[in-house]
Design a protein that fits this description.
4-stranded parallel beta sheet, 395 residues, Rossmann fold, alpha/beta, TrpB-like_PALP, transferase, TrpB-like_PALP_sf, single chain, transmembrane helix
Length: 395
């Protein structure tokens, strides 16, 4: 005998399950189409997964542009960040390390199993250590001992030999760059990467410029970047201006660096927020990997139209602002770049599109730039709240 009550109960249960499934499906559609930005939803739905790459090296480059909503809304411009922290080595320096290693292998300077050396504040070293491991080479990194300790730990975890040195002038034989150069000279078959003067750095970023042009469909008014070696701003500026010479290239220069005055006045000398004059200590900044007090071969090749100054206070506040409002956890050089993008947007006025570089993430800066205790020592604890940009001063 058929249990009609049982059938009825089963039918009701099935109907309830279908209704729940339909309700959930409608919720997902509503969430994607109504609650999330339409541009995000559409891009996610239409995005095609890329083909597999041969190795970790194939994942370098072709990083996305991220619309920084808070900065865009506050300035009336479209401010986009090139998400270089999504490279497999975690920074924009992956591109440079790959190009240097590829070129030296192709020329025969570097042989499989050989040694590549560099002096760096951290990110280039991490990228070189990763790329060297991927091609079967070894890596030696000399770095200042006041750089964030997690960078040295990461380098060691990647298999690099690391030497930490006291900060000294570039003219001193114990400067990390000079120590790395000497190690290469003393080791048969070794190659000194020489990221500051090696124009492979610039050449790597011609591709970055072309990517930005394609991602913005050529609708770009300004590119903003700091300079650590000068390679990023040189390569991107050359790449973009070859496509449209009217694109403005703006240098974002931190306190303690000389490049702002080189661009604006033609003379290298440093600036400090508090003193407003030449410093006895030209490295008086908490930012790492950005700013120069000499003219490198890479920066000399940059096509820069203007420059803005960025104080430590502005950089620290910007890093906290982007995490609070956009969920972006960035390093100090990326924060400098975003301050520069806001200043460029104010100078251009609403309705323009500006691209900057999100060089690396905040995880490499936990012991310094993102450490409350460290910031408190220098009276740099972030105090700004909300979405306003009053903490960004004049250019």
């Amino acid at each position: 005998m058929v249990d009609k009550e049982g059938q009825r109960a089963a039918g009701l249960a099935a109907a309830a399950a279908l209704a729940a499934a339909a309700s959930y499906a409608l919720y997902r559609v509503y969430t994607r189409q109504q609650l999330l930005p339409s541009s995000w939803s559409n891009s996610r739905q239409q995005q095609q997964l890329p083909a597999a790459v041969d190795s970790v090296l194939g994942a370098i480059g072709n990083t996305p542009l991220i619309r920084i909503a808070s900065l865009s809304e506050q300035t009336g411009c479209e401010i986009l960040g090139k998400a270089e922290f999504l490279n497999p080595g975690g920074s924009v320096k992956d591109r440079v390390a790959l190009r240097i290693v590829e070129e030296t292998l192709a020329s025969g300077q570097l042989q499989p199993g050989g040694l590549i050396t560099e002096g760096t504040a951290g990110s280039t070293g991490v990228s070189l250590a990763m790329v060297a491991a991927a091609v079967g080479c070894h890596c030696f990194i000399a770095m200042p001992d006041d750089a964030a300790v997690e960078k040295a730990q990461l380098l060691q975890a990647l298999g690099a030999e690391v030497v930490r040195l006291r900060p000294v002038s570039i003219t001193h034989p114990e400067h990390p760059v000079n120590v790395a150069r000497q190690r290469a000279a003393d080791t048969p078959g070794a190659v000194f990467a020489d990221q500051f003067e090696n124009l492979a750095n610039l050449r790597a970023h011609l591709d970055t410029g072309r990517e930005i042009w394609q991602q913005t469909c050529g609708k770009l008014h300004a590119f903003v970047s700091g300079a650590g070696t000068g390679g990023t701003i040189a390569g991107v500026s050359q790449g973009l201006k070859a496509l449209n010479p009217s694109i403005q290239v703006v240098l974002a220069d931190p306190q303690g660096s000389s490049l702002f005055n080189k661009v604006k006045r033609g003379v290298l000398y440093t600036w400090h927020e508090a003193e407003g004059k030449r410093l006895k200590n030209p490295f008086d900044t908490i930012t790492e990997g950005v700013g120069l007090n000499r003219l490198t071969a890479n920066f000399a090749a940059a096509a820069v139209d203007d420059a803005v100054r960025v104080s430590d206070r502005e950089a620290v506040e910007m890093a906290a602002y982007l995490l609070r409002n956009d969920g972006l956890f960035l390093g100090s050089s990326a924060a400098v770049n975003c301050v520069g993008a806001v200043k460029a947007a104010r100078a251009l006025g609403p309705g323009h599109t500006i691209v900057t570089v999100l060089c690396d993430g905040g995880a490499r800066h936990l012991s310094k730039f993102h450490s409350p205790q460290y910031l408190a020592q220098y009276d740099l604890t972030p105090v700004a709240e909300g979405r306003g940009l009053a903490f960004v001063g004049a250019a």
